[in-house]
Amino acid sequence: MSWFLRKKTDCSRTLPPASSDPPCDSAAPIPPPLSIQAPSEPITLANARSCACDSEAERAGEEKEKTALRELVEKLEREKERLTTNLAATRARLSVELAAAEGRRAHCGRVVAQLAQLRTELREEQRVRTEDVAQKDAEIGTLQAALAAARDAGARRDDARERFHFVLAYNGQTGSVSRTVLASDPDSLLYTMYCGEWEYPRDENGRAIITCHPDRMWSRSGKTPNTLALKSLPVISARQQFLRWEVWKITAKANS
Question: What is the pLDDT of residues 55-79, one digit of tens each?
Fold first, then answer.
C-alpha cells in the first residue's frame, strides 16, 4: 500500500497542476511533437534487482497489512459472535424474568381478589354476629324482665303468705294483718275468718273483700281472739260481700 502512495506522489510531482496550463488559443501555432528522450541513466542489472527488491518489499508489506486486516476482521467476527451470544443469553434471561414477573403479578392479583373476598366474608360475619348479639341482648333483657317480674311476684306471694291483705266492702278501705299474729291462736275466730277455711271474693289486686275490719274485731274481743264467738258476728256470705264491694265502687265512681 505504501508503494502505491509513493507512486502517486511521484506522478503528482512530474505532472504540472491543471491550473498552470495556459489557456487554449486557436490562433496560436501548434508546437511540434515532443521527441522521446533517452533515459539519463542506462537500465542495468543492479537497477533491475533494486526494483525487484523494492517490489518484493512492497508485496511483503502488503501481505503483512492484509494479514493484519484479516486478523482484525477475525477478531471483530469473534467479538460479534461473543456479543451475539451474550445478547441471546441476556434476551433469554430477560424472557424468563419477564415470565416470572408476569406469574408474580398474576399471583398478586389472585391474592388481592382473595383478600377482597375475605374482607367481604368478614364484614358479613361481623354483621351476623352483631345481629346475633343484639338479638341475644334483647332475649337477655326479656329474661331479666321476666325474672324481675317473677321475683316481684314471688315477693308478693311471700308477702301475701305472711300478711292477709283486705279491702272493706262498704268504704274501700285497704289494709293487711300479719298472719303470724293470727296464727298465734289457731282456734280463734280471727284465725278461722282470715287464715282458715273462709273464702272471700277478690278484687283486681288479689285483696280479700270483707265487711268487718280485723282491728275492730280484735278490739271487740279484748285482744283475746278465743273469747269472740261466731254467733256474735253477723253472718254475711261471700256473694253478699262481693255485691257490697261492687256497689261501693259504683257509688265512688258516681261521686267522683
Answer: 777 787 888 888 889 899 999 999 9
Backbone angles phi, psi at 176, to 5 degrees: -150, 155
Q: What is the per-residue pLDDT across 188-205, written as a single tens digit (0 to 9) for each?
A: 666 666 666 567 778 888
| Interatomic CA distance for residues 184 and 186, integer angstroms | 6
Instruction: List own/partner pairs for 120-123 with CB under 8 A and 24 or more apart.
Output: none
Residue 248 has pLDDT above 90, yes or no: no
Quick check: 140 pLDDT over 80? yes
Give 18's DSSP letter.
G
The CATH number for 211's domain is 3.30.710
Spell out a b/e string for 14-53, using b for 16 or more CB atoms within 10 Å of the CB, else e: eeeeeeeeeeeeeeeeeeeeeeeeeeeeeeeeeeeeeeee
Higher pLDDT, 94 or 161: 94
Contact yes or no for 216/175 (Cβ under 8 A): no
Give burial (CB, 10 Å; 0-12/13-18/19+) of 124: exposed
Instruction: Dump pLDDT digits (tens) for 97-119.
Output: 999 999 999 999 999 999 999 99
Q: Number of structural domains, the chain? A: 1
Residue 162: HSE in the Cβ half-sphere, 13 Å Cα cutoff: 6
Q: Could you tell me if 169 and 248 are in contact, meaning their C-beta atoms sit under 8 angstroms apart?
A: yes
Is the separation of the CB atoms in 165 and 176 below 8 Å?
yes
The domain containing residue 193 runs over which residues?
Answer: 161-255
C-alpha cell, 79? 467479538
Confirm whether 116 is domain-assigned.
no
The verdict on residue 29 lying in a domain is: no
Name the E strands within 65-144.
none
